[in-house]
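Can you give me the bound-state structure? Components:
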Amino acid sequence: MKAIKHIAVALAFASAAALAQSATELRIGVEAEYPPFESKSASGQLQGFDIDVGNAICSKIKVKCVWVENSFDGLIPALKARKFDAIHSAMNITEERGRTIAFSDPIYSVPMQLVARKGSPITPTVAALKGKHVGVLQGSTMETYAKARWAGSGVDVASYADQEQVYADLQAGRLDASLQESQQAIAGFLSRPAGKDFGFAGPAVEDAKIIGPGIGIGLRKNDEALRKQINQAIAQLKADGTLEGIARKYFQVPVISKTAP
Amino acid sequence: MIDILNEYWKAYLFSDGTRWSGLVVTLWLLAISVAIGFVMAIPLAVARVSSNKWVSRPVWLYTYVFRGTPLYVQLLLIYTGIYSLSFVRSTSLLDAFFRDGMHCAILAFALNTCAYTTEIFAGAIRATAHGEVEAARAYGMSKFTQFRRIILPSALRRALPGYSNEVILMLHCTSVAFTATVPDLLKVARDVNSATYQSFEAFGLAALLYLTVSFALVWAFRQAERRWLAFQRPLGK
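Here's the bound-state model for the whole set.
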């Protein structure tokens, strides 16, 4: 009995060691309900921008990508519990998350822009927005940004439970503008009949502290070697234009982060 | 847990930094909608028990519709549905009212709780002892005086236990207010959840606060019952 126990323990250690050293596959956690970044095709295959980018990175560092689906708010706990080794699920690099996990260099960032009725004089400045009603999605970076930068200066920032409602109220005239990711605005509103009288109002908003440097791959803090490998791969894929090519498949707005900090 | 409390206690209780939020909004929604519902329910309950079909049927229809559809749907209809009608937006008074999510939430909640309260009060009025009404009539009281002096004071007292349930259910119903962009207690909990990913603590705090308010309501109604339902208490207590 004791012998069996010893063997079992030995085996467990051996397999753990094997996992740690022979990284022939990279298990990546993803929440597949967020097109065009990640979603499932009709046949159940994962597809989307993050999936293509992840696969490109895997082939650069010569490992096999194994995608593991997980709910978004469970991604960080699962990463720490070693259910997978990396997160690539349109996750913004933020200070708050940075306290728990490490991030690769930013790969891309999705610009956020105001949408308003065509011909409206609105721009993303406090002066232009004073007294106006701006809609944002609850719990989003846009909400944090609008509250921190605008709400204190006489701009009415209304949070909504879902983005469709924001567009509905924008159309109904309850809102003067809405702040969301530019790509979301094109796909979800501006390209549809309902959004034909609306357009982007002013340039994308920028804020290093709230919006952060962009979206990157989340990793455990002690996996420094893997982080270096992935950063190298990202830099190469940016330099040879692979990422730009993939991005053009999915987005009508430029997304790839220019420089590695 | 401590970090959530440190960072968000204000948002949970009264303010997110720029406007009212959390518990204060929830309590305000509850107080105003229950108050409006109560005041409107008394005449409606009297109409509901009227023997005149032209008076009682419309009230029956109103309570049937509002008790037969989910509050969530009613709120969506009032907030999104009504404001999408162009004549509402072009009438300045209606536009000013329906533009604000808070107004829409209060209207929906008040109409909803009023429907339930009407039925509770109407039931109590129907259960008034025949003898009491006959005695009032024998004194030569008019219909109005009968209601004012005899039927309503007794019916409202007997409706207290049922009514306290309705108020507590209404407290729980206010958690759909965020559908109309009103930053109530649950909205703050959702914010904290999406900011910290500490779901148990985020929603647990909200649950604790709801529980505290429920306890306070139960206590208050118990006091009210001791005072106004004393005649129904067993002897020697």
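A couple of observations. The domain at 25-109+213-250 of chain A is CATH 3.40.190.10 (D-Maltodextrin-Binding Protein; domain 2). The longest helix of chain A spans residues 2-21.
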